[in-house]
Amino acid sequence: MDIDSNILIRYFQGECTEWEKEAIRVWLESDEAHKKQFIRERIRFDASVVIDENKLSSSGVSNKGKTFIWNTLKIASAILILIASSYCFSLYQSDKPDSSLQSIYVPSGSRTSVTLPDGILVWLNSNTSFKYPTTFASENRIVELDGEAYFEVTKKEKKSFIVKTDKYDVEVLGTTFNVEAYANEPTFKTGLFTGKVKLYKELQENESLYLNPGESAELIGDVLHISAANQNSFRWKDGLIILEDKSFTEIMRLFEKYYDLQIIIKNDKTKGLGYKGKLRISDGIDHALRVLQKDFHFTYKRKEDTNIIYIY
Predict the structure, then answer these.
(1) Where are the beta strands (DSSP E) in 79-235?
(2) β-strands 209-211, 223-228 pairing
(3) Residues β-bridged to residue 20
(4) How far is Cα 277 from Cα 242, in angstroms, rounded to an integer?
C-alpha cells in the first residue's frame, strides 16, 4: 500500500480530510519503513518552510553567513526528527471529543495490524472498522468490531478482554481467536485456537455459549452452531485465500471483499461448481481469475471506469 506524497503535504499543512487522515494511519501501521518515510517527508516540508535554498543562493549573504545558516539547519533537522515523530503519534489521537477512544478503518482490498495496550496483537481484514481505548483503565478491556479480526490476547488475571459486535460479544481471558461480524451482513463466525471464549448477547449473558480450543461457532438463522475450527479460513492475515469446497459464487464474493470491486456473474453454469486451492491476495484479481479458468469454462471482462467485472 502506497501513499500519495500530496496527501502528506496536505496533512502537514493541516488541510487533510478525515478520510485522508485515516488512510495515512493505515499506511503507517502497515510497514515500519512507512514511518521513516513519513519523518523524511516531514523534515523536507519543514526545511522548505524555514528557508528557500534558491533564494539563499541568489541573495547577498556572505559565505560565512551561509555556513552559519546551513549549520543551523543541520541542528534544526535533528530537532525536526523529534517533531515529525510526534506527528506520527498524533495520527493515533482522535479528533473527536472522546479522545481516549481510537478508531481505525481498513478499506476494501487492504489489511493491517495494530498492537493494543497490554500488548494485545490484532490483525484487521478488509472493510473493517475497529475502536479501542488508548489505555485499558477499567475493570475489563473492551473493544468494538465491525468486520473481521484475528486476536492474540495477553492474559490478565481478573481482567477479561471483550470484543463487542452488533450480534454477539466475545469475552476471553487470554487466547487466540478470529471474529467475523460485519454489521451489514448476517454472518457471525468465531474460531478459537487457544484458551477459552464466551459468546453472549448484551443483556442476555445468562444465555452464553462457551468455545474450547479447536471449535468454531457460526450464526445460522438465529442459532449459534458449534463445529470444528478450520485454521485455513483465517489465513487472510497471512495474505492468503484458502479455498476449500467453495462454490464459484462464494469465491466471487471473496474476491469482491479482497480486491474492492464488483463481480456480476452472467454464466449460470459456473455458479454451483466447487473449487479447492490457494491464492495469494497480492497476486491480484486477474491472476486469480486466470487460475480459476483452468478449471472453469468462463471468460470475463473488466470495466475500469466502473470497477465491475462481468463473468460470461
Answers:
(1) 101-106, 112-115, 121-124, 128-133, 141-152, 161-164, 169-172, 176-181, 189-194, 197-200, 209-211, 215-220, 223-228
(2) unpaired
(3) none
(4) 6
- For 14: left if phi > 0, alpha if psi spans -120 to 50, otherwise beta; the answer is left
State the Cα–Cα distance between residues 182 and 204, nearest whole angstrom: 21
DSSP state of 167: S
Alpha helix stretches (DSSP H) within the chain: 5-12, 18-30, 32-50, 53-58, 63-90, 248-259, 285-293
Q: Which residues, given as ranges, of the chain have pLDDT below 70?
A: 1-2, 18-19, 22, 43, 45-100, 137-138, 157, 203-206
What pLDDT is recorded for position 149? 94
Q: Is 295 helix (H, G, I), strand (E, B) or coil?
A: coil
**CA atoms within a 13 Å half-sphere pointing along the CA-CB vector of 230:** 10
Rounded CA separation 147/130 (Å): 8
| Length of the chain in terms of residues written | 312
**Residue 156 C-beta-side C-alpha neighbours within 13 Å:** 18
pLDDT of residue 231: 78
